[in-house]
Amino acid sequence: MNYTLDFKSEEPLPSLKTKTKAYFQNHGFKLSEEAPNNLQFKAGSTLRNMIAINPLKWKSQIEIEFNDQNIVAHFEINTIHQIVTQKETKVWETFVNNYQNTIETGTSFFSENENEIKEAKNANWELIGQMFFGAILLGIPGGLIATITGFEVVFFTCLFVGAAIFLVKEIF
Fold first, then answer.
1. 105 and 151: one domain?
2. Which residues span the membrane (predicted)?
């Protein structure tokens, strides 16, 4: 996933950099590079993508460029090992837009971002529970059929299909 913001601000550069650092560091991003007119932040790792329930913990790189009164922010989010749900996409969209809102208004949108994260986490846990239920629902009869026929692959296929049935509704 990639997002780009391009907006103007009349604030002095030191103030913009301070607000930018605070915004991203308050959400767990690490400042990886700082130049006179450029800031880069990083978070997460490819391996952590497999287990992260919080979308802001995914591997991501953010580059902020300050040119005169123009601010250009590039967000590159690595979604490897992720099946991105609508709630997770909304977290990133809110986070990206709230960066601009924070710079323009000077107001912290931390709690709004956290609420979106909480909603996404709850939806993810609910989805995991539904997938588990689906796996059990089809896994039990699949296990019986596998035991009777001697084809173990039937059991594993039923587990997979049972979990996938509930996953499909989130993807599409």
1. no
2. 151-168
Length of the chain: 172
For residue 74, the cross-strand partners are: 4, 63
Which among 72, 76, 61 is positioned nearest to 9, based on CA atoms?
A: 72
Q: Which structural domain range is residue 12 located in?
A: 2-109
Number of domains making up the chain? 2
Sign of dihedral through CA atoms 99, 172, 120, 78? Answer: negative
In this structure, are residues 32 and 41 in contact, taking their beta carbons and an 8 Å threshold?
A: yes
63 conformational bin, left if phi > 0, alpha if psi -120 to 50, beta if neither: beta
Q: Angle 65-71-76 (CA atoms, 0-180°, nearest 5)?
A: 60
> pTM to 2 decimals?
0.85
Per-residue model confidence as pLDDT tens digits over 92-137: 999 999 999 999 999 999 999 999 999 999 999 998 899 999 999 9
